[in-house]
Amino acid sequence: MSWWKRIQRSKAAVRFAADMIAFYVRLVYATTRWDIRGQEYPDAFWSENRPFVLSFWHGRLLMIPPTWRRDRAMHMLISQHRDGELIARAMDPFGIGTVRGSGAKAGKKDKGGSGALRVMVRQLKLNEYAGFTPDGPRGPRMRAGTGVIAAARLAKVPILPVTYAVKRRRVINSWDRFILPWPFNRGVYLWGEPIDVHSDTTETPEQAALRLEAVLNALTEQADRICGHSPIAPAERLVPQRDATAHAGGDA
User: At 116, which CATH number?
Assistant: First the structure.
């Protein structure tokens, strides 16, 4: 058994690891000089207490929590896998709640994805906020599933894309090319304009997901270039777009 699996099997180890992750995120955020662009988009919704779906790629997950306004209730869709437990605990110090559920692949067990989606929609209808990594929990990298579209459409709220990049970083050799930023850094957050996916009844969920994907990829490419990096390429699209019942679209 690997050291990582041993940690995952120990509740005490998971709590300690989550505390260390939260500490590291705070350290990086506090010691980095941030250029925040597009802040007016979330501010407009927060000031009017209007809900939206927050959307960002799985590989940019680490530094998203500090951007959140603590007095606005947020719920992130998190995988039921053991990794999800660690992420959920690391989110706690930032006032971000979690909903556990993992999108099932076609022909396989649901794993709670449909129920989790219903919970997220209910929270949105209560004027709270929902967060999705549309390529999570296992990819393909930077390719959007349709679960995030389903949530936004059912709740009749827009999607707000966000991403970040930093100058000094390590890119982990994982499926999502996870970004690990170093402390004492320079970085940028880019918020995109709200994306309306529910007004046009002729647009299919797959078309809406491709539109979101294009916006998020353009923002992420722009952020990387601002910080002096070549953009990380999305994974090849190997299978047809997943539907809302096949992929909860997605969980972290």
Answer: 3.40.1130.10
